[in-house]
Amino acid sequence: MKGADRLKNDRINFMDSRIKYVKNVKKLVVKVGSSTLTYPTGLLNLNRIESLVRQLADLHNRGIDIVLVSSGAIGAGIGKLGLKTRPKTIPQKQAAAAVGQGLLMQMYEKLFSEYGQIVAQILLTREDMGHEERQLNAKNTFTALLKQRVITIVNENDAIATEEIKFGDNDTLSAVVSTLIDADLLILLTDIDGLYNSNPNTNPNAELIHHVKEITPEIENAAGGAGSDLGTGGMCTKVNAAKLAVSAGTSMIIVNGAHPNILSQVLEGKEVGTLFESHHSKK
Question: What is the pLDDT of residue 12?
Fold first, then answer.
């Protein structure tokens, strides 16, 4: 077989395998990071947020249940308070989150309402998920909201959470939420195109890994490095989130949130980002 034909067949096989994991999605969790939602100044990137809301509203109109795990509260608070750098102490972070969370929800409420969508907010801590009754209450609340066709926006309760009860990052939180609501697919929107076999910031020859069937030590070694100054998660936390999600039967995809209509591309089975396939199918 000629090289061009083999490349074409590989691409078709790749898309076929992708479509299997995205074609019948009914319950979707989308996580968006601070680096996607905010400028380096800490102020909200309104164009990016408007694009995200439009995409989610359109998917919701298709009949897909949507849960959005949104970072950005601390980043928004940083901008509102006029801080030059990300706060270092827990009280400073909590203060920024308390200011920013209201600003972020106000923005989501306004934008989603323009598309006729109703939104709700749920704030969680790790302690909530470790307590059987609280976890059940959270699950029941999600179920009731989704049944009413409400787009639910989730964040960690940064204003009161301490290090002992924090998830640590919203990648982990989104995987926990995906497990809690038995989601079909988790999409992580970040500022990089996916998982590479080495750091693309330092290695110009780094190659994007399109499909991960199993999270091996090699895959874990490929992940690493810190996120931006406004975020807390690097690729390592995303791979750890993938472990949680796929073990519960939720496939996960990492994509660049800056690309136009990226969510539709994912659900059409396009060759974007890195897919971590679930260990067992819900279909």
Answer: 44
